[in-house]
């Protein structure tokens, strides 16, 4: 389930223009099943993202929108 969450967050950041995908790595990690005592293999994913060129502009615009919304609520 955690892999789906990581992929979803990465896709949202890319879709909103905040990040670009640089690298995706997948692997299997051997772990011990505590309830049964047997070794199990679990999937692992690493997604390396970088900021887009307009990241700072998008974040500044979002901050201005939040500040304006906060000002409207206090009035």
TrEMBL record:
**Classification via InterPro entries:** Alba-like_dom_sf, UCP030333_Alba
Name of the protein described by the UniProt record: Alba DNA/RNA-binding protein
Say which species the protein is native to: Ilex paraguariensis
């Amino acid at each position: 389930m955690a892999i789906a969450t990581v992929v979803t967050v990465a896709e949202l950041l890319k879709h909103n223009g905040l990040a670009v995908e640089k690298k995706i790595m997948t692997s299997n990690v051997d772990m011990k099943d505590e309830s049964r005592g047997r070794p199990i293999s679990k999937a692992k994913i690493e997604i390396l993202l970088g900021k887009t060129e307009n990241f700072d502009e998008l974040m500044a615009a979002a901050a201005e929108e939040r500040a304006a919304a906060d000002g409207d609520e206090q009035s």
